[in-house]
Amino acid sequence: ESDTASEISFQFNKHKKTPSIGSHSSDMASVSSVSGSVLSVYSGDFGSVDAQGTVEFALDYDEKNREFQVHVSQCKDLAVVDEKKGRSDPYVKTYLLPDKARMGKRKTSVKKRTVNPIYNEVLRYKIEKMVLLIQKLNLSVWHNDPLGRNSFLGEIEIDLASWDWSNRKLNWYPLKPRSLSAVNGVDHRGVMNLSIKYVPPGSLGKMCPKNPPSGEVHIWVKDVKDLLQLRPSGVDSFVKCYVLPDTSKKSYQKTRVIKRDTNPIFNHTIVYDGFHTEDLKDACVELTVWDHEKLTNHFLGGIRLGLGTGLSYGISVDWMDSTQEEVAFWQEMMLAANEWVEGLLPLRSL
């Protein structure tokens, strides 16, 4: 059924009394703080004021340092958020789309009590030029609220593939209402084709030589389609797997790297033993897809298979956040002991 198989033991008991597990989510811990969903581009109260005014900025790419630079100069005639006090406290925020989870956001300082803020700041991204050219720059202006209900003041979106890189001058651009393009389709990161199976303890009968003394979860990663293409030649991808809350080396497994292919076929099976039926309510299988590079691997998307209750062994955790599709897939496996359950699940930013 597969050309590669991994089998590892998984011990849950040692995690049940560990309150710190909520802060650990394998390699995703570094990403989850940046972005939870596409709508985080527009996190805050974006319906309170109409977009108006202009923003002055310039774009440049430093070939020597391989750095994309956004020179944010100033804004003029921004909308007033607090009409009683006649004030706005604006700042500028940038994302590179669609891969905002990987790149994160950059933002300027906050200028208080002004609708004509002057920044003269440079927002920097370490990124290869050919990767940059398949991105869009989303630059937005926000009012900073002490209680966190930041108000959207306007934005501009630039397709960097068609940008004139000889133009390094500061230019004025009108701020526009929020773009639906940044909400629709940005988080399409591909689809994973996989099968899972749960083998309960002793369920295969005493006469079976492979009858497991403890339960087993089998994960068969077949292929992934429509991955983000980070370079003209495609993407060099592999899949990581953890069974949370365990983020130790014992839990960690990965497939081989498939090079230059946005539709990689992995055909890799992983078997985790040490499962009791009640553990299925508190565990979560995290599968993440990565682009392999020498210095650092880039996150492409992932799925989390579990009940999505937000709790693991009575402790609140941020990684127990399975979508409805992922929950239904996990539940189907729990109800169909010893049977493969097949599914096509969309990758998402975790």
UniProtKB/TrEMBL annotation:
SUPFAM superfamilies: C2 domain (Calcium/lipid-binding domain, CaLB) (SSF49562). GO terms for cellular component: exocytic vesicle; plasma membrane. GO terms for biological process: exocytosis. Residues 51-173, 188-320 form the C2 domain. It comes from the Eukaryota. Its main location: membrane. The keyword Repeat applies. Keywords: Cell membrane, Exocytosis, Membrane, Repeat. CDD domains: C2A_SLP-1_2, C2B_SLP_1-2-3-4. It is found in: Cell membrane. Pfam families: C2. One of its GO terms (molecular function) is neurexin family protein binding. This is Synaptotagmin-like protein 2. The gene is Sytl2.
